[in-house]
Structure formats: structure tokens, C-alpha cells
Specification:
The complex is a heterotrimer of chains A (289), B (394) and C (341).
Chain A (H helix, E strand, L loop, with lengths): L1 H31 L6 H17 L5 H22 L10 H23 L15 E4 L2 E4 H23 L1 H11 L1 H6 L4 H22 L10 H4 L1 H11 L4 H21 L6 H13 L11
Antiparallel strand pairs in A: 1-2
Chain B lengths: L2 H22 L2 E8 L6 H18 L2 E2 L2 E9 L5 H13 L5 E4 L3 H6 L1 H7 L3 E3 L14 E3 L4 H14 L4 E7 L2 H16 L3 E8 L7 H10 L3 E5 L4 H12 L8 E5 L8 H4 L7 E4 L8 H14 L7 H20 L5 H8 L3 E4 L2 E5 L6 E13 L2 E13 L9
Parallel strand pairs in B: 1-3, 1-4, 4-5, 5-6, 7-8, 7-9, 9-10, 10-11
Antiparallel strand pairs in B: 2-3, 11-14, 12-13, 13-14, 14-15
Chain C lengths: L9 H9 L7 H22 L4 H24 L6 H18 L4 H23 L4 H21 L1 H4 L24 H23 L1 H11 L1 H6 L4 H27 L9 H14 L5 H20 L1 H18 L3 H16 L2
Classes of the chains: A mainly alpha (289), B alpha/beta (394), C mainly alpha (341).
Protein name (chain C): Branched-chain amino acid ABC transporter permease
InterPro entries (chain C): ABC_transp_permease, LivM-like
Subcellular location (chain C): Cell membrane
């Protein structure tokens, strides 16, 4: 029993990291129809910036977290203007894949040049080291923090999309971009803001997840498949779909590794195949935000 | 011209050029294949630096021949690419020796090539026992997992530990380590309660930690290739409270290699490893080695086991060039150094004529806080350890 | 996930159409292309006698990228799982070479059959999906196969790679040597045959029907055709090509590694194809030669320079030359032709 509890808790923590990073991708894919393979690159850049801020400049962890998310968004918005805006829309799928892979390569090369090839850490503050007692199992404080932030992000996004004017416009634009534009919604600005939101979530996940997805220059390429998997399983544009997908894949992966360690990612990908056969458009049909 | 004829003529011409080349030329090239980019770039860097240290201490010529090193980057375990690089080094660069090799698959892949070209291959790191069985032209100056794990298993047993769990990366060296430890430990009367093989790509180690916790073992034997994954594993061990629960941590020294120690921080404290080299080894030769390194590169943070592997490998290449008078004769070169004994920064070494792996002292070390940062402090020395895994130690 | 990425890439289609100017007859141009590949290949043999190892890998990769062009360029199937087919062929040929047969041509047949069967089996399953779902499914298939190859260590050598692939001399006459001369000429012959066969297939009624499915699946269905049947059919053909390419790599290099079943290898094929220009076979050859040639030069100094370069290059292609290298050349040629009456 304790073991099951442990697996579930570990799986949820892992899943939450996947969720925070992937939901940004899901939102941009759902709204702008952009297969953004550079999504992981934004998470990685944020991680490196945070590592530099905390280690070299001595910025407190939480301050660095917020500052880095803002900084990454600021760095990415010009890219939206210069690059992404040209490839919006479902007709450009191949162009999107290539442009964003190209961008990822450039980021990988630059990060390697600036920060070097070795693994980087983001030292955790005192209150996030050690363990927290959660009933039958003690879990690392950092993981507990990740779970809390993940739940907050989920609720925050839900509130933003369901309860605000912005959310209504956004969902309108997701459902029918032409109609939304005809109704006077400024889709261009909406796109920029949504792109920023996606990048911000990637950045948040990149910093928080550095303990589970270690920072090295190939990060951007290594984990993008994971993020895409979550989006595909959850359904593009669906927040709850992403959450459900990330948590179930996180738990499946953790359980698989616990029960049959040497089978590695076998269960993860087998689960993806089975789910996609059953629900080819993801858990939540990929329409609702 | 018919292709047959052309091929034949061409072959003869190149063949002649290759045979004649090293004998006449005053430069003997050594091709080094290692990771110089990517997550394991530090390993390639230590190879290169150690070679430069050796050349700074001993000159770049042997009996009038200049030794020149040619470096090729292979960022990850990729046997096909390794073979292609080796082929290019042999055919195009006309190297007389191959060296380097951080990963086992990369070293194994070149066996048919060195046999065909008849050139020796000096392995600076790759630690699976089976490699040197594949060709008589392999020589190894690093260590094998068997070599490190057999004395460690005895040591752990003598500490009164009865139940151990093993956790290794699921590839050649990991399986070697697991087998060596399990066999020795059980022979000594201990019990290995579970064996975990973790995929090489793992980044989240929490599920494995849970399994270790549930196994009821008093201690863990762990092996992962030195680098990022090792770091994550050691940290997970700490963060999930296994260390606090009193589970002892043993393993080959990869896990606490010197370049990783600053990043590991306090998580490394108390880990007991068995290995052939610690930067903190107390000998005049090691002090000279480390000092020269500091003089050349300004820092000693990266000096570690891969450094001495390359340093001693370079020594053997010099000896082989000396023995063959610069001529290309792989079999004679390797014959000349079988049984060679010499003093290395790590201690006394002797090449085992059968396994062509060095016989060396294994040190049991504990990671402690030294004057400037963490060090691997030697607490016991077990001399004359051969490669127990050669031809079936299993 | 519906409308997001379901449509075939219109940009590539447009480029494919513009890239085929209606000037000389098809058969004539096809023959010229084959002659150029064969002639260029032989010239390279004389010019770079010390780089035959690399050149052989380039030729085998050309065939692999060509196999992707058959599905992506002619059927509009966006896949990131081509390595699954390549790796299946490579491992099948490698295992056969170690245990059963040693004739290199027979080994290519083994690889082709294995690749084709894998494509048929997985294609029938995954080609129901579109867009991101299809991408994910093809990735998942590749990852599962890689995991399997890693686990079956006794058969595949696991992460150590499958070594001991030592084929007999080609036709009993030409031994595979260290300098790669036989390997190179053998690979060149296979590639030329492959290109000719691929030309035949895409110009055949079946090939044209596949193009029809790509342009407008509904119409094909309305006319009584089976869009999915065609897709699975072409995917299987592509699997044969990829399998032969894998077997060719195994035979000429003597080793098969887990990387031949990796996601990266699939992605690289895609990059090379689009670099060259999808949808007209030759783009695959041009893109592969350009990509691997530049890679060899740049990566030997510093692999990250290479990544920076290829990254910028890819972005430039998308923004300024959507038809890839061949598309760009065709456009320039078109401009020149229009200028000179």
C-alpha cells in the first residue's frame, strides 16, 4: 500500500513537470496551429538563466524563478513577431516543424557556446531541500513544491480561460479564427499574448523541472518528444486534457520503472500507442480549452 | 579500365603507400576517438589534457619519430560512427595507433578494423571485460568493472553488511559490475536481495529509489557511467531520504569522479567507492602530475580517472613506438609491452599479458570534505588486482 | 487535435509542382537524373579515394531519405518514424548475416522484405491517424522497436551494437575491404537501381493515384478508390526502400547500432529531405549529399558550429526557399529561362 502511494506521488510529481511544460505547447498548438518543436528550447533557456542567476549572481530561488520566466517571455516575443507569425495555420505543418527544429538547433548551439557542455544545476533554497511528511510516505520537499505549483497553474489557467474576457476571446478564436476576427477580436495581439503565455509556462517548467529533467545543451531535443506525447494524448488546446495526459503518463512511467526497471520507456510508449488508438484526438477531443 | 583492374591497381598503390608510410615518415600519428562535445565532453577533455601533460613531461619524440595525436569527436555511444571514424583515421590520416574510447560499444566496434590494419588500440577508459577478448591488439590502461567490484564486494562484506541491492545502468559495463559484485558478495556469504537494471536514458530515479527502499537492503551497490546521469542518481538517493534512512552507498568510483564533486555537493559525503585513482592519491608522481596539469591548464578540477587512463595509455604508446623503432608492426608492438611494469600517478602498474588490461591497486575511498572542497580519500588499498572478468570470470 | 495539422503541407506541394517545369519529356529527364547520379558517384570515387567510408554512408543515406520522400513527398504522410523501417532492415540483414547467409545481395533482399513487412504491419495500424497523432504514433513505434532491440541483447548485441556482420564478396568476386572501395561501388549501384525503381513507381498508375490521395483524398474515395489502401501500399513500398537502405548500411559498415532505430535518425531524414526538396526523388539525393557533406566538414571542427549552421540554414529555407535546394535551383532556372527568350 505504501509502495502504491509512493509510486503515485512520484508519478504525480513527474507528471506535474510534464504538465507545466507541455500545457504551454498545447495552448499554442490549439490556438495558433503551430507545431512548436522549439518549445523545449524555451524551457531550457529559462533553466540556464535561472542556474546562472542563482549560482553566479546569488539571486534567491523564488525571485530568480519569476524573473527568469518574465525574461524568457521577453526574449521569445520578438521571435513570435519575426518567425512564428509567418507560419501560423495548419497549412504550414512541415514549415513549422523545420523552422522550429532550426530554431532549436540554434538555441542548442548557442547555449553550449555560452554555458558549456556540462550539466548545470539550479541550487535549491533551504526550504525546498529535505523531505516533507505526506502521510505514509516522505517525499522530497521540492517535489511537493512542484505539485503545488502545478495545481496552481492548472487552476490559474482554467480561471484565465473560463472566467476572464481574455479567455472568452481566446476560446472564440480557437473555435473559429475567421469568425473571431470578423467579430473584431484582434487575433494578432491575442496570438502574441498566447504565445507569451505558452513560453512562460515552458520557462516555469524548465526551472522547476531542472531536478528531474537535467539541464544540458541537448535538453531541447531530448525531451521534446515527451512534451509532444503529452499534447497528443491530452488533445491540443485542452488544459484538462494535458493535465490528465501528463499525470497518467507520469504515473505509468513511474510504475513501469518501479515494477520492471529494465524495460525503461517501454510502458510509456506502449501506453501512448494504446491511448492514441482508443482516442485518436486525445482525451478531450482537442477542441475545448 | 575495368573496375576489377582499377580496384586492384588502386588497392596495391594505397596498400604500398600505407605499408611504406610509417617506416619512412618521421611522424607517427595516433588517432584518439572520444567525446569532445555533448554531455560527456569532459571525458574527452581529460584525455586531451592528460596527453598534453605527458608530452610536456616526456617530449613529443621517441627515437627521432615525432608522435602526433589526431582527435575525433564521438559525442555518445554510437558503434557505427565509431567504426567510421576509425576507418577514416586509418585510411586517410594513416594513423599507426588508435586510442581513446570512453564507451564500450565504441571500443568494440573497431575490432575488425584494427585486426585488418594490424594496428594497436589503446583503450583509455571503456571498462567492459569482454573488449580485449575481441582482438589481440587491444590494450587497456583504465580498469574493468570486475576489477573494481570484486575487491569492493569483499570490503562491503567485511564491514558486516549482509543484504545489498544492486542498481546499474542497463548496458555492458553495468551488467559486468552487477555480475561481479553479486558473484563475489554471495560467495563471501552475503545476500543480494534484488538487482535493478536502469535504462541508460533515465533521468527520474524516484521509482528506483522506491524499489531500493522497499527491498529492505542495508546497502546499495550502484554503477552508472560517469557524467550527468550519475549525478542525478546520487542526488535522488539523498533527496528521497535513503541516505537519511541509513542505507550505505557503495560503487565503482565513477559515481564520485572529481569533476562532478562540486555539483554533487554534500550529497556525495559518505559514499564509499573502489577505484584505481583519486586525485588525492598521496605519491610524489601524482603530485608532479597534478602540478603539471595545474601549470598547463590553470585548474585541477577535471583531473580524474580518465586523466590517468589517457596518461598511462600515452606512456604505452611511447613504449610501443620505441620497441618497434617507429615501424608499423602491431603484433610486435603489443608483444613488447606485455609484462611491462611501470609507476603511474595512481600507483604501480603491470600489464597482464593475457588480458592486456593493467594489473593495479584498487583503493577503497570515502568522499569527505578536504581543505578545498570534496575529495575521494583513500581508506584502504588492495594491491595487484587483475581483470577478474577476462574470459569468463562469470 | 483536429484541424490543427491534418492537412498535407501545401507549401511543399506547391514547390513540388513548380519544381517540375513541363519542358523536356519526363522519361528523358529521369534518364538524365540517373546518369547524373551515376556519373557524379563515379567522379567522387576518383576525386575522394580516401573518403570512401563517408561517401558510402552518404549513398546509403540517400536511399533512406528517398524512401521517406516516397511517403512524405508523394503521399503527404508526415512521419517521424522512418528510422523504424530503416532499423528493421538493418537489424534483419545484420542478424541474417551473423546466423544465416552471407551473400550481400541476398542480405539486401532480407532487409527489404523485413522493412516492407514492418511498414505493412505498422502502417495498417497507424495510418488511420493524421497530424500530430500520426507523428506521435510513428515516434512511439520507433521507440518501442529501439527498446526491443536493446532488450534482445543475445540477438542484437544491445547497446554494444551488432558486430560480426561479415558479408561474402559481391557476386563472389569483390571482397569488402577496409578502404571501402567495394562498399562504395556496391552502394552506388544499389542507389542507382533504387532511383530507377522509385521513378517507375511514382510514374505508375499506383504512384499517380497516391499523389491524388495526397491532393484530395475525398475525391479519390468518391471515384471508388481507397485512400487508406493506397497510403498503406506506398508506406509498404517505402518500407522496402528503407529496409534495403538499412541493410546496405549494415553490409557496408559491418555493424548495426541502436542509433539506427532512433528518433534523431528519423528527424534527420526529414531535415535532409526538406533541405533538398520533397516530392521529386532527386531532392532526397541533393539534400542528403549537402547535409552530410557540410556536416562532415563542420562537425570535424566543432559539432556545435554545425548545429548553429544547420539551424540557421533550415530557418532560411523555410522563410526564403520553401522548395528546398532543388526547388530554389528550379526557381532560379525558371527566372533565367524567362529572361532569355
Amino acid at each position: 500500500m505504501q509502495t502504491v502511494y509512493g509510486i503515485v506521488i512520484d508519478g504525480i510529481a513527474y507528471g506535474m513537470i510534464l504538465f507545466i511544460i507541455s500545457v504551454g505547447l498545447s495552448v499554442t498548438l490549439g490556438l495558433m496551429r503551430v507545431v512548436n518543436l522549439a518549445h523545449g528550447a524555451f524551457a531550457m533557456v529559462a533553466g540556464y538563466l535561472a542556474s546562472y542567476a542563482v549560482q553566479a549572481m546569488g539571486v534567491p530561488y523564488l525571485v530568480a524563478l519569476l524573473a527568469v520566466v518574465a525574461l524568457t517571455v521577453a526574449l521569445a516575443l520578438p521571435l513570435e513577431r519575426l518567425l512564428y507569425r509567418r507560419i501560423y495555420g495548419s497549412a504550414n505543418e512541415l514549415a513549422q516543424v523545420l523552422l522550429t527544429i532550426g530554431l532549436t538547433f540554434v538555441v542548442v548551439a548557442s547555449v553550449n557556446y555560452i554555458f558549456g557542455p556540462t550539466l548545470k544545476r539550479i541550487p535549491l533554497p533551504e526550504f525546498l531541500t529535505g523531505t516533507v511528511d505526506l502521510g505514509p510516505k516522505e517525499i522530497p520537499a521540492h517535489r511537493a513544491f512542484v505539485i503545488v505549483v502545478g495545481v496552481a497553474a492548472l487552476l490559474g489557467l482554467w480561471g484565465l480561460l473560463e472566467r476572464t474576457d481574455f479567455g472568452i476571446r481566446l476560446r472564440a478564436a480557437v473555435e473559429n479564427p475567421e469568425m473571431a476576427a470578423a467579430l473584431g477580436i484582434r487575433t494578432e495581439r491575442l496570438y502574441a499574448i498566447t504565445f507569451g503565455l505558452g513560453v512562460g509556462l515552458a520557462a516555469l517548467g524548465g526551472v522547476l523541472g531542472a531536478e528531474l529533467l537535467p539541464l544540458e545543451p541537448y535538453y531541447a531535443l531530448r525531451y521534446i518528444v515527451l512534451f509532444l506525447a503529452v499534447v497528443a494524448v491530452g488533445g491540443a488546446g485542452s488544459i484538462f486534457g494535458s493535465a490528465a495526459a501528463a499525470l497518467s503518463l507520469g504515473i505509468i512511467d513511474t510504475a513501469g520503472k518501479y515494477l520492471y526497471p529494465s524495460f525503461g520507456e517501454f510502458f510509456f510508449y506502449a501506453a501512448i500507442m494504446i491511448i492514441l488508438f482508443r482516442w485518436p484526438h486525445g482525451f478531450f477531443q482537442g477542441k475545448s480549452a | 579500365m575495368s573496375p576489377v583492374l582499377r580496384t586492384a591497381l588502386f588497392g596495391t598503390a594505397v596498400g604500398l603507400a600505407l605499408m611504406a608510410g610509417p617506416a619512412l615518415a618521421a611522424t607517427i600519428k595516433v588517432g584518439v576517438i572520444a567525446p569532445f562535445s555533448g554531455p560527456f565532453a569532459t571525458a574527452g577533455q581529460t584525455f586531451k589534457q592528460a596527453i598534453e601533460v605527458y608530452q610536456a613531461q616526456h617530449g613529443k619524440t621517441v627515437g627521432g619519430d615525432t608522435i602526433e595525436f589526431v582527435f575525433k569527436d564521438l559525442d555518445q555511444a554510437n558503434p557505427a560512427q565509431s567504426k567510421a571514424l576509425a576507418q577514416e583515421l586509418i585510411v586517410k590520416e594513416k594513423v599507426g595507433y588508435l586510442a581513446g574510447f570512453f564507451f564500450t560499444p565504441d571500443a568494440l566496434a573497431v575490432a575488425p578494423l584494427i585486426d585488418e590494419a594490424k594496428i594497436p588500440c589503446v583503450i583509455f577508459n571503456a571498462a567492459t571485460s569482454a573488449i580485449t577478448e575481441k582482438s589481440p591488439l587491444y590494450v587497456r590502461t583504465s580498469f574493468t568493472l570486475w576489477q573494481a567490484s570484486v575487491p569492493l564486494a569483499d570490503y562491503v562484506h567485511k564491514q558486516g553488511v549482509k543484504k545489498v541491492i544492486t542498481a546499474v545502468s542497463d548496458y555492458g559495463p553495468g551488467i559486468d559490475g552487477e555480475t561481479a559484485f553479486k558473484t563475489t558478495f554471495e560467495k563471501a556469504g552475503g545476500q543480494v536481495v534484488d538487482t535493478i537494471r536502469m535504462p541508460l536514458k533515465s533521468t527520474d530515479f524516484a521509482p528506483f529509489m522506491q524499489r531500493i527502499k522497499d527491498s529492505g537492503a542495508e546497502a546499495i551497490y550502484a554503477f552508472l557511467p560517469a557524467g550527468p546521469t550519475t549525478l542525478a542518481f546520487a542526488k535522488a538517493f539523498n533527496d528521497t531520504g535513503l541516505k537519511a534512512a541509513g542505507i550505505k552507498f557503495f560503487g565503482p568510483g565513477d559515481i564520485t569522479q572529481e569533476p562532478d564533486l562540486p555539483a554533487l555537493g554534500d550529497a556525495a559525503l559518505g559514499i564509499v567507492t573502489s577505484f584505481h585513482y583519486s586525485q588525492a592519491h598521496d605519491s610524489a608522481m601524482n603530485k608532479a602530475f597534478v602540478a603539471k596539469h595545474k601549470e598547463l591548464f590553470g585548474s585541477t578540477q577535471t583531473v580524474t580517472f580518465t586523466s590517468v587512463g589517457a596518461y598511462d595509455g600515452t606512456h604505452l604508446i611511447y613504449k610501443m613506438v620505441e620497441a618497434t623503432g617507429g615501424k608499423s608492426d602491431g603484433a610486435k608492438a603489443v608483444d613488447a609491452i606485455k609484462n611491462l611494469s611501470w609507476e603511474s600517478p595512481r600507483g604501480p602498474l603491470k600489464l597482464d599479458p593475457a588480458s592486456r588490461t593493467v594489473i593495479q591497486t584498487m583503493y577503497i575511498r570515502e568522499t569527505v570534505r578536504g581543505a578545498d572542497g570534496l575529495i575521494n580519500k583513500e581508506i584502504a588499498a588492495i594491491p595487484d588486482q587483475p581483470d577478474y572478468g577476462y574470459k569468463g570470470g562469470k | 487535435m483536429t484541424a490543427a495539422v491534418t492537412k498535407a503541407p501545401a507549401g511543399a506541394t506547391a514547390a513540388a509542382i513548380t519544381a517540375i517545369p513541363p519542358r523536356p519529356s519526363r522519361a528523358f529527364r529521369d534518364a538524365v537524373a540517373v546518369a547524373l547520379i551515376a556519373g557524379g558517384g563515379l567522379a567522387a570515387y576518383w576525386i575522394f579515394p580516401e573518403d570512401l567510408g563517408l561517401l558510402t554512408r552518404i549513398l546509403a543515406t540517400c536511399l533512406y531519405v528517398l524512401s521517406l520522400d516516397l511517403v512524405l513527398g508523394f503521399c503527404g504522410i508526415a512521419t517521424l518514424g522512418q528510422a523504424a523501417l530503416f532499423g528493421t532492415g538493418a537489424y534483419a540483414a545484420g542478424i541474417a548475416a551473423v546466423h544465416l547467409v552471407a551473400d550481400p545481395i541476398l542480405l539486401l533482399v532480407v532487409g527489404g522484405v523485413a522493412g516492407g513487412l514492418m511498414a505493412l504491419a505498422t502502417g495498417a495500424l497507424v495510418l488511420r491517424a493524421h497530424g500530430l497523432t500520426l507523428l506521435m504514433l510513428t515516434i512511439a513505434v520507433t521507440q518501442l522497436l529501439q527498446e526491443l532491440a536493446n532488450k534482445l541483447r543475445w540477438l542484437t548485441g544491445g547497446s554494444d551494437g551488432l558486430s560480426g556482420v561479415e558479408p561474402d564478396p559481391v557476386l563472389g568476386l569483390f571482397r569488402f575491404d577496409m578502404y571501402g572501395r567495394t562498399s562504395y561501388l556496391f552502394a552506388l549501384a544499389v542507389l542507382v537501381v533504387g532511383v530507377v525503381v522509385a521513378q517507375r513507381i511514382v510514374r505508375s498508375p499506383f504512384g499517380l493515384a497516391c499523389r491524388g490521395v495526397k491532393e484530395d483524398p475525398l475525391r479519390v474515395a468518391a471515384l471508388g478508390g481507397s485512400p487508406r489502401g493506397h497510403l498503406v501500399g506506398m508506406y509498404t513500398v517505402s518500407g522496402v526502400f528503407a529496409g534495403v537502405a538499412g541493410a546496405l548500411t549494415a553490409v557496408t559498415s559491418g555493424i548495426v547500432g541502436l542509433d539506427s532505430l532512433s528518433f534523431t535518425w528519423s528527424a534527420e531524414a526529414l531535415v535532409m529531405l526538406v533541405l533538398g526538396g520533397a516530392g521529386h526523388l532527386y531532392g532526397a539525393v541533393v539534400g542528403t549529399v549537402a547535409f552530410m557533406g557540410v556536416h562532415h566538414v563542420l562537425a570535424s571542427t566543432n559539432p556545435f558550429h554545425w548545429m548553429l549552421f544547420i539551424g540557421l540554414f533550415l530557418m532560411a529555407i523555410v522563410l526564403f526557399a520553401p522548395g528546398g535546394i532543388t526547388g530554389g535551383v528550379a526557381r532560379i532556372a525558371g527566372l533565367v529561362r524567362r529572361r532569355a527568350p
